[in-house]
Design goal:
The complex is a heterodimer.
Chain A (H helix, E strand, L loop, with lengths): L1 E8 L18 E5 L2 E8 L8 H15 L4 E3 L5 E2 L2 H10 L1 H11 L2 E9 L2 H14 L11 H35 L4 E6 L5 E10 L3 H14 L4 E8 L16 H17 L8
Antiparallel strand pairs in A: 1-3, 1-4, 1-5, 2-3, 6-8, 6-9, 7-8
Helix pairs in contact in A: 4-5
Chain B lengths: L5 E4 L2 H13 L12 H30 L4 H24 L19
Helix pairs in contact in B: 2-3
The chains are: A alpha+beta, B mainly alpha.
């Protein structure tokens, strides 16, 4: 039976609360040592990405986040049975543990900013026209005319980028005060000045939101989109290198897990 | 307990439009079949040529700004870049490719151009 995976969690316990995922199937935890992969059974492969299936995936992760630290897995990730899930978890165990520790009690927030690119370019172009005499290429042959045009375009683009960097740096100062990590994408389109994701500690969410409101009010010509809290989709770092545990390390780890579970009165490791 | 995630904006349509622009350019999967393999290959090759052409152009502009090109050299570079640009236009027409199609998604590194 194919298994659809939603995320990796920092627990090998059963999921007590009933959570339903894609196709209304109940999700459960496949444990490996002290972590787990949360899956549900999939009767047939997803043919089309539908709004409902994406929302079902997201809802499962969000509900899991109410109880565990979660490494969200990309939508439409399917394994060919339990053994494949276990083998993947064995291969990436160390990476998963590192990420789970790093992302504990943290959420992702998204910030997108649209600026009036046309107006800004027009302003730059006008100021360049006034300084046309500073052009280092004399007007002349068609080749020189071509180079003049190219240089003008180059200068406008350079200044446009400089302005974008300046705005982004100022905004980022406010956001970074309350974030522990970030990914910034500058000018994905001419209008989309900033597409950023910030990783924020649980108890700093309100401060982060306040910083956003401050930025928004200080630059009212721009358009803003704020979203979150989300699972840390943009902050899970996995290298492609399989970092398999050696047999002795694996045995040692299982021993430690058993000891810890005995201490807290849980008698079964594997579900 | 859910996270109660929110998406707040006064301009949802404009953000959707901009995000669609970034999504629409690059296919998530390579759609290779006998009918389009030639175009697919041309797209890949032309993307790399376009990248090199843009790099050359940028480097030339930097040198002009720095004043390290003589008038004669500017003339020659201008001719070369103009010919290269015209050739690219021709090839794009032949393979029915638009400017925005000439790009590659490099995964976590983002887009090539």
């Amino acid at each position: 039976m194919a298994l659809y995976i939603y995320g990796i969690i920092d627990s090998s316990d059963r999921i007590n609360e009933p959570i339903y995922g894609l196709d209304g199937a109940c999700v459960y935890n496949i444990s490996y040592c002290d972590i787990g992969g949360v899956v549900s059974e999939l009767s047939e492969q997803l043919q089309n990405v539908t709004k409902n299936s994406v929302l079902a995936h997201e809802e499962v992760i969000e509900r899991l986040m109410g109880h565990f630290t979660v490494l969200p897995v990309k939508f439409d990730t399917v394994f060919d049975g339990r053994d494949c899930v276990l083998s993947m978890m064995q291969s990436y165990y160390r990476h998963f543990k590192d990420n789970l520790n790093r992302l504990r009690d943290k959420f992702e927030f998204g910030v997108k900013v649209i600026w009036p690119a046309d107006k800004i370019k027009k302003r730059i172009r006008n100021s360049h026209k006034k300084n046309e005499h500073e052009m280092p290429i004399p007007d002349g042959s068609s080749n020189k005319k071509f180079m003049r045009k190219k240089l003008e375009k180059y200068r406008i683009n350079e200044e446009f980028e400089k302005k974008a960097n300046k705005f982004i740096n100022v905004m980022d100062i406010f956001f970074s005060k309350f974030a522990v990590e970030k990914t910034l994408k500058k000018l994905k389109t001419e209008n989309l000045l900033l597409d950023a994701a910030y990783l924020v500690e649980k108890d700093r969410q309100d401060d982060f939101k306040e910083a956003f409101e401050h930025v928004k009010s200080s630059q009212p010509d721009f358009k803003y989109l704020f979203s979150g809290p989300w699972p840390a989709y943009n902050f899970v770092i996995l290298s492609n290198k399989n970092d398999l545990l050696k047999d002795s390390e694996q045995e040692d780890l299982f021993d430690r897990v058993i000891q810890q579970r005995e201490l807290v009165g849980v008698d079964k490791i594997w579900h | 307990m859910a996270l109660n995630s929110v998406v707040e904006t006064d301009f949802p349509e404009e953000f959707i439009e901009e995000m669609e622009k970034t999504d629409g350019v690059l296919p998530k999967k390579i759609d290779a079949n006998p009918e389009n393999v030639e175009k697919g290959l041309a797209k890949l090759v032309l993307t790399l040529i376009e990248l090199l052409r843009k790099l050359l152009e940028k480097q030339a502009m930097r040198r002009v700004e720095a004043g390290s090109l003589s008038e004669e050299e500017i003339e020659k570079v201008g001719e070369t870049l103009m010919k290269l640009e015209n050739k690219m236009k021709e090839l794009k027409q032949i393979f029915d490719l638009e400017d925005e199609e000439l790009n590659l998604n490099l995964g976590p590194l983002g887009d090539l151009m």
